[in-house]
Amino acid sequence: MAYDEKLAARVRQALGGRADVVEKAMFGGLTFMVAGNMCCGVNRSDLIIRLDRHITVKDLESGHVRAWDFMTRPMPGMFAVDAAGCPNQRSVDKWVELALKHALSLPSKAARRPKRPRPSR
Q1: Strand order, beta sheet including 21-26
Q2: Helices then strands, each counted (H, E), the chain
Q3: Phi, then psi, of 72 in degrees rounded to 5
Q4: I want to staple 74 with a disulfide (CB 3.0 to 4.6 A). Which of 24, 33, 67, 117 is the partner?
Q5: Is the pLDDT of residue 111 over 70?
């Protein structure tokens, strides 16, 4: 199991059928992109949220949140909320709303044209 399907369904519901959401397999789990920006995701039984890089675990005031260290060191602004921090739709809605606000504060990447491949030399 790469990610918790029930948690992914709760994230889909939290995003409320937005037209600008794209789901992508990423980091061994599922990532939800909003307007072309990474918003949140599910990895194993954790909800992964992306917030401003200056926010710390302490700022989030929850014993269920840790810095996400997927790449052996914490990634600024990336947090994992464990299963105990996401027991129901209401709690998932709260975390996803924080991540959604951040994603929507960023310039949209959705309308950008794909990069052209560099010519071979």
Answers
A1: 21-26, 29-34, 37-43, 46-50, 78-81, 65-67
A2: 3, 6
A3: 75, -10
A4: 67
A5: no
The answer to whether 46 and 11 are in contact (CB under 8 A) is no
Greater model confidence, 74 or 121? 74
Say which residue the tokens 């105990």 belong to.
84
For 87-109, write each residue's pLDDT tens digit.
999 999 999 999 999 999 999 88
* Phi, psi of 35, deg, nearest 5: 55, 35
Choose among 99, 97, 87, 91: nearest CA to 45.
87
Banded model confidence at residue 118, pLDDT cuts 50, 70, 90:
low
Q: Give the DSSP H/E element, type plus range, for residue 47.
A: strand 46-50
Q: What is the model's pTM?
A: 0.87
Domains defined along the chain, listed by start: 5-105 (3.30.1460)
96: which 2 tokens? 């996803």
Angstrom distance (rounded) from CA 107 to CA 11: 22
